[in-house]
Amino acid sequence: MSVVALRRLGRGCDGLIPPPAFAAEAEYVEHTAGILEQTAAAVTITSEGLAPLTARVLAAAGSDREPWIWRDDGDEIQPREPGELALLQFTSGSSSRPRGVRVTWANLHANLALIRGGLGWREGDAGASWLPLHHDMGLIGALLTPVSVQADLWLMRPEQFIRDPARWLRCFAVAAHTAAPPFAFEYAARRLGDRLADLDLSAWRNAIVGAEPIDPRVLERFARLAAPAGFSPAVYLPSYGLAEATLAVTVRTSGTPAPTVRVDTRSLRFGRPVAIDGEGEFASSAHTPSDGDGEGGGDGEVGRDGEGDGDGWLIGCGGPGDGVGATVVDDGGRPLPDGHLGEIEVTGPSVTSGYHAGRTGSTRFTEGGIRTGDAGFFHRGELFVLGRMGDSLKARGRSVYMEDLEAKVVSATGIARERCAVVGVEGTGGTSVTLFAEKAEGAWVEDATVALRGALGDDIAITVVIGHSGLIRKTSSGKPRRRHMWEQLRAGRLKDVRVLGTAHVTTGRPV
């Protein structure tokens, strides 16, 4: 059995928790015990091999119950009338302990209709996915969407995709739909390279792309390599969503190319207009963004290795779907005009009722909606997302986002995106930025520092922490656990790392 299952008897609600993968056992026990404490689960179900570990989790959660070992006796039970709550969907815990989002059947029904509508699902369509089913994008976007229309689904485990990404891609000789983070396309392009041309991707119509910041260069590199296999960039449906809204908030309409804009990051001030330096359309593998006057601009090209500067490019995530309201608001909750940077607010039937057991978080529930804690802006009716407001800091009077700093490091050094993470710290001792990287020391350190210094100025301390694979701690959805890594560094718990520069490491708190 690949997961631990929870069941709240009499409530009609099940939950799935992933087994330990690469996390340390003590860390896994603490994380999972926190979930059990919130759910007050009546029964905890596991496989025989995971029973000893599950017992330790139960003990850490303060329960004297023994885990129930899954056995199939071949008999079917009678279906029961479902309760209002469909599932507790736990947030990934990128900035705090996970919280259970209360998703009702009505929320689920509305969000599945929104996703299917964006995909333009047809009779006879099929899907393919490798995403874990304990994550909202895997469970709702990849599994329940085809299941809700009784369609076929090619399903594989995440480790099968990691071992052989072509196994997933071969499905698209028949399958039309999938959902995946940008990492999937970056990883497949890196592992397969020119061999992508040997595949048959002719049936592939849609790929919902989300769950992490979307770098247009990553998508374009895969599209260019896969073009001979029949892949079109129009397959990409960059989207925005969050667990508190069940899953999807915006999903692009199938077959419509996504717009791109190049932002002057020096203009990013909350509540103020965003300066757009260039615009383009992600329509073909020969995509060239414009220089702002409608003509192609050769020095701003996205995704062509070694050609031009791709920094600052964002890709549109569509507009709100049917029945969903998405606006950008200022600190006081007042709507901002198009082109102004603010916090994304969401309303509609997919918005859940709150966190289980009275928990709170950076996403704030309001009357009929949620303030997401994500920063973004609308441009020509299209939503562009910059990142978590808690993952930014002030430099020279403007907002600087950690995802943007990571993109600059990747561009300057060639480090794989998943092997680095940037953490910003603001405190009484000053403001600092720490770059964590899974890479041996070398000339790249100076290149990374120069890139960060160019974005931040001279008055912010920069620390570089280098180590082996596993240094970048991640959530179940692949997001870097920035706060956790910084706390581990401050407490001296990171082993076999080298710290280059230590200013402000022990003061302040991560943003």
UniProtKB/TrEMBL annotation:
InterPro entries, per database record: AMP-bd_C_sf, AMP-binding_CS, AMP-dep_synth/lig_dom, ANL_N_sf
Pfam family, one: AMP-binding
GO molecular function: adenylyltransferase activity
The AMP-dependent synthetase/ligase domain, residue ranges: 40-274
One of the record's GO cellular component terms: plasma membrane
GO BP term (any one): fatty acid biosynthetic process
Taxonomic superkingdom: Bacteria
Region annotated Disordered, chain positions: 279-317
Family: Belongs to the ATP-dependent AMP-binding enzyme family.
Listed name of the protein: AMP-dependent synthetase/ligase domain-containing protein
Organism lineage string: Bacteria, Bacillati, Actinomycetota, Actinomycetes, Kitasatosporales
